[in-house]
Amino acid sequence: MVIKQIKQWLTARANSARWRPLSEWAAERGGQLRHARDGRGFVIDLPRTLPGLTRIEWGPSQRSYIEGFELRMRCELKVNPDMQMMLIERKLMERLESSVFEAYTDTLRTRVDTDTPEEMRWLVMFPKQSQIESKLVRQRFGAVGINRELIMAWLDKDLSERLAQATQDVLIEGRPFVLLSLRGNVYLRTSMPEPSLGEVEALTRVLDAAAGSAQAVHQRIGDGGPWPTTTSVAWHSRPSEGDYGAPV
Asked: What confidence tens digit (pLDDT) does each residue in 170-216 have?
């Protein structure tokens, strides 16, 4: 027990120096960085920066399509929960599409696998949007959602520019990345073997743009804009699954 406590203390001390830039960055924004008990990650809560309360977490991956460690972000917006939209790195989309389609068309399976996360189910449920205005974003990402018009409105100029900028150094080709609007919040998930302040800042800017755009779309709908009907309505009333229904 004593040896274990000493190891935990040494790990915590090493991580304090390792993540000091991130801790200071969070503090400047009124937030706080907290270490995971096992020393294998951290959580940052930012209460006053993005459009809503934001949580950033780095640690072991919670998705089978990401190996090793990942960065997860959530911005609480309380927008229309039916705004189900996703942007996904194109190579990851092609890989997941192949595996999930094979599983869902298996004649031996009589029900949907509830252990499959939304980002995989949506690839076979929702229509794809191929008319993304930004050529770079169109080449590097795929987009699916409850309605094509909704996706186009979400991928506005600001979000597209932030994504294009991030592809230059953070969202490199082949690096798993998912950005989605689900249950009234916006989520971001990407592979990250070792966190750095520069990467976290860049991805926070992407999340900020995605959240701001989602709020604008929500406002437009609230002002009497059109809302699509689709066979997917049965899905948005499902209980929370995976880690999207709880803190990331």
From this structure: 999 999 999 999 999 999 999 999 999 999 999 999 999 999 999 99
Q: Which amino acid would we find at residue 74? A: R
- pLDDT, tens digit, for every residue of 100-135? 776 666 544 544 455 678 888 888 889 888 888 888
Strand order in the sheet with 85-89: 32-35, 42-46, 54-60, 69-76, 185-191, 177-182, 85-89, 141-145
Cα dihedral 85, 143, 179, 185, rounded to 10, equals: -10
User: Any idea which residue has 């992407």 for tokens?
Assistant: 206
Give residue for tokens 């009124």: 30
Reported as type and span, the H/E element at residue 215 is helix 197-222
Tokens 């942007």, located at residue: 87
Dihedral sign for Cα 152, 158, 164, 167, please.
negative
- For residues 156 and 144, give the distance between their C-alpha atoms in angstroms, rounded to a whole number: 15
Query: How far is Cα 98 from Cα 115, in angstroms, rounded to an integer?
Result: 17
Residue 144 has a CB neighbour count (10 Å cut-off) of 23
* pTM score: 0.83
Q: Which of 47, 36, 52, 73 is nearest to 244 (CA)?
A: 73
Among 163, 146, 160, 157, smallest CA distance to 221 is for 146
Is residue 62 within 8 A of residue 242, CB to CB? The reply is yes
Partners of residue 18 on adjacent β-strands: none
